Amino acid sequence: MSKPPFTLTGFDHVVYLVDDMPRALQFYQEVLGCVPGYSYPALGMEQLWCGACLIVLWDTTHPGAASAIPPVAGGRNVDHLCIATSPFAPQALRDHLAAHGIAIEREATHGGARGMGHSVYILDPFGNKLELKGPAEYPDGRSL
Length: 144
What we know:
Blueprint: E1 13-18, H1 21-31, E2 35-40, E3 45-50, E4 53-59, E5 80-84, H2 90-99, E6 104-110, E7 117-123, E8 129-133
Parallel strand pairs: 1-4, 5-8
Antiparallel strand pairs: 2-3, 3-4, 6-7, 7-8
């Protein structure tokens, strides 16, 4: 069996379909701290830096997004995006989200690319599920 002609380096981007770009930008910039990236006004698309990766927001109310509209009304093509984070104090994160009116859907310790760590699941204003996942946690209290 042959190997792929490339190596995997991590999350690059995810595209979320939204229907209120100002509200989307406010959530991703103010709540999550994403930084503005590239803008494609002809497409109704904005890219935001999430660390070294991108979150792409595509406004389905914009004429340039006609090819992005799901074939089923309300259909989604992404279950959730897992955003790797630095270590965080769970209560500080809960307080931050509450201050922005963001409900926590679920909180647990889950595995991921960096190992078992604390995860918090939230929804953005458009119903897209996000998992905010801290680094791996070890029985001796270390985190990487």
